[in-house]
Amino acid sequence: MTVTQGATDPGVDREIYDLLAVVWRGRWLVLSLGAAFALSGALYAALATPWYRAEVLMAQARDRPSDGLMSQFGGLAGLAGINLGSNDNAEPLALLNSLGFAREFIEEEKLETVLLARKWNAAEKRWKGPEKDWPDVRDAVEFFDEEVRRVVQDKKTGLVTLAIEWKDPAVAADWANKMASRLNDRMRERAIVESTENIRYLKTEMSQANLISLQQSIGKILELEMQKLMLARNNQQYSFRIIDPAHAPKKKVKPLVVPFTAIGGVLGLLLGVVLLIGRVVLQRVRSVS
Prior knowledge:
CATH architecture: 2-Layer Sandwich
Mean pLDDT: 83
Distance between the termini: 30 Å
Radius of gyration: 32 Å
Helix content: 55-70%
Low-confidence stretches: 67-80
Structural class: alpha+beta
Order of helices and strands: HHEHHHHEEHEEHHEEH
Oligomer: single chain
CATH class: Alpha Beta
Strand content: 5-15%
Number of strands: 7
Number of domains: 1
CATH topology: Bacterial polysaccharide co-polymerase-like
């Protein structure tokens, strides 16, 4: 017998109808499991340790002395291996996101046992379990990078948000503000070291230059480097200006009751359907054997 294309197999239709009938007859089991799982999800979200998010809003610092002379002396400075700098915030943003910066922050603040508290025996002042399984700073950095720190840049405005999520709202705000401050400190230190070395190099080259025009060009770059040095030394917010510092939040960000209730309810409904269909399949297998 030839089955025309698009025709429906009556056996398949009957099978689907039988399964739907089974689910309908067992609807109270399905609904009961859905309600139970939804309630479990709601209770977990309500009773679990809350996490809070503290945010620092930052804007790129604009007062750079290099902008006006960048096009005029950028080529000469490049030949000398000197970076005049720009308003690009790629470097400080990359530093803020880096694992190395997170590691330094964790080590300076002594946060290993705080971040990995579940593995720390506070009474005995030692890690739990055998020594070969003890975590180290790399585990703390991984946890911090995946669960605690968030960095978001608005592509339109250029504003950068540093978010810290933690179980204590005051601690989350403190960490966020400290990380923003350390970022500016690190960039200031780099700029001071770089400009100091460049000034020393330029003074040497200027004293050895024979052409007046070359001396004048080097002098302009030297003046620029001295301005950069002064700016770095006197500006605490060197790379990013703090628009809105972090404050201890009042509302938790996770776990939230509504999402956990919905997820629990859906899982319960699916489990009920699977149990009903599985029971039918098992009965058929037994009858055949």
